[in-house]
Amino acid sequence: MPFVIAIDGPAGAGKSTIARRLADRLGYTYIDTGAMYRAIALWAAREGIDPEDGYRLEQLARAAVIELLPQRQVRLNGEDVSTEIRASEISVAASKVAAIGAVRAALVEKQRELADTTSVVMEGRDIGTVVFPDARVKIFLDADPAERVRRRVGEQHDVSPERLAAQIAERDERDRHRAQSPLIQAPDAVYLNSTGLTEEEVEETILKIVRGRISNGKG
Fold this sequence. Notes:
Layout (H helix, E strand, L loop, with lengths): L3 E5 L6 H12 L2 E4 H15 L6 H10 L2 E4 L3 E4 L2 E2 L7 H11 L2 H14 L5 E5 L2 H5 L5 E6 L2 H11 L5 H17 L12 E4 L5 H17 L4
Parallel strand pairs: 1-6, 1-7, 2-6, 7-8
Antiparallel strand pairs: 3-4, 4-5
C-alpha cells in the first residue's frame, strides 16, 4: 500500500525543500501542490481571467494537464513553466486561486490520483487535514516570521524584504481564515519549528518519525 507523508505549513517554512529531500532519500515521488496552484494562476493570468473568478478558474483546473518532474520542473499542458510560476505576482495570485473551493476540489482529485499507485511526499496547506487525512505521517512545519522572510528573499530577488514580509503576512491571513480548507495543524500532526535548524537536521528529524511509524507496523 502506498505510503503518504503529508507536510503542511505556512509560506516560507521550508516545506518544498524538505519534501524534495525526503522524497529523494526515500525513493518516493515528490508532489509540489503549490506548483499546481501556481500553474493555474499562471494560465489564468495569460488568459486575462480574474484570480477570484471561481467558475472560469475551476474550468482551467479541471482541464489543466500538470506534470511535476525532477529538478522542480513543472509542465502545464506540455509547456515548461518552471520559471514563470515562481514570479512574485504569480505567487500572490496563486494564494487567491487556492482559496476557491471548486479549484481546490479539482486539484485534490489530481493529487489523490498521483498517490494512488506510488508512495509520495506531498506538501501544502491542507494535505494532512483534507487531501490525505489518513496519511501515515503528518508534519506541520513552521518557522518564525523573520526566518520565513529571510528564506523567501533568497528565492525571490525581484522583491524587497519589506514587500515580501507584507506578502507573507497577507498570505498567512488569507490561508488561515479562508472558508475552504484553511491552514490548520491536523490533530495528529507532529509540529516542527525549523527556525535555527539546518535542512539536514529537519530532514533527519522527520526521517526518524517515518522510521518509527514503519517499525511500529503503521507503514
